[in-house]
Amino acid sequence: MQDSILSYFLIEQPFAVFQFIFTLWWIWLPIVLWPILKTLYTDYARGNWIAANLDFVLLEIVLERGEEKTPKSMEQFITTIHGGQTEYNWWEKNIKAVVPDMYSLEIISVGGSIHFLIRTPRKYQKMVESGIYAAFPEVEILEVSDYTTEFTNDTLEVEYDLFGVDLGMAKNDAYPIRTYQQFLDPTIDANINDPLSQVLEVMSSIGPDEQLWIQLPIEPLDDSWNNVSKKELDKILDRDFEDKRSFIEKYLYPIVEVLSFGLVKAPPAPTPKEQKFGVDQNLTPGKKNIIETIELSMTKPGFRTVLRVMYLAPKGIFNYSPAKSVLGALKQFNDSSLNSFKPNDNSITIVEDFFNRPKLGEQRLRKILMLDNYIKRKIASTKFIFNTEELTTIFHFPGGSVTTSTLKRVQAKKATPPVGLPIISD
Description:
Blueprint: H1 2-23, H2 25-53, E1 56-62, H3 72-82, H4 90-94, E2 103-110, E3 113-121, H5 125-135, E4 140-144, E5 160-169, H6 196-204, E6 211-220, H7 227-236, H8 247-259, H9 285-298, E7 302-305, E8 307-314, H10 321-329, E9 341-343, H11 360-375, E10 384-387, H12 388-394
Antiparallel strand pairs: 1-3, 1-4, 2-3, 2-6, 5-8, 5-9, 6-7, 6-8, 7-10
């Protein structure tokens, strides 16, 4: 008898449980497969929509010599392109997989020759060009072919190799990075100790067969992006009100309390805190500075973006140390009390096991994904929100004091075509 009962629980009962679970496949299987199916459908529908509706153009801006300008002029331009956004409804976003209006701000070094590029939908080309000329009247704007097309998966790790990483943020979007305003000379507003000069110096020092790319794909957002900032301010000022009860505690427990005639008590709703307005005089100077910085950041238009760094070189000379130097130079913009860049470990193209041995299969897959994301200017899993001031800090035209010899500048009224970027012919 005991043996039969034991046999029932060890053999027949587990089988019955699995059989019962299997009969409910129509409930759990769609839940399990939903993220995968959604991603596949979105990529397929989005690819079709892009092919049918979007036409991009890549513009190079050849810089002027002479007048020293702060990045404020670039912020003026970025604010201008923020207005070029189209609102889409739920059906268009989720079923038709419409791609929002996007741009890409890029700084590249081809064999040490530095180029500033902006990728824009062709329908906004005139707006972008007008905005650049309004802020920088003496520059030259050239329409160029896409420099990424010469790199394919077929020749990856055969003819050339790459290193890439997506940078995210250490804290949430409420906290800004250290911006160009903190590098301005307080005595002469027109002068700036340009932190971008260190990045450009590294990029100009690579060999003739190497390439180093920095990319900021950007998507304009409406004002709702600063809700995160408002919530963070409420936490700092101790005026946040959040109901942390679960769905069962909020809706089922009250029913049980009624049916049990009060024998089972439902968890009480949290009591709203007393609202505080303004900056509390008891706050430390550090917290006051954080609050003021967040409040100022909220007043500026926002973009969804990612900061992507990539190094490419022939297989025989591949050495990604220039990319590491660029990542080191970008640490100038970190602020321990506010925000800082943080590499996404799931995107970096170097993968090792516990014994520091390279996992070649996973490395190659990450390289393919990184190259695809770069070529298509995707904002992938690593994403954050920058306002116009933060974007300007990373992408702006250096003034005349930046003397990097490979930085292309206007020599005459009409500039010659850029090295390595052939002009599109009629």
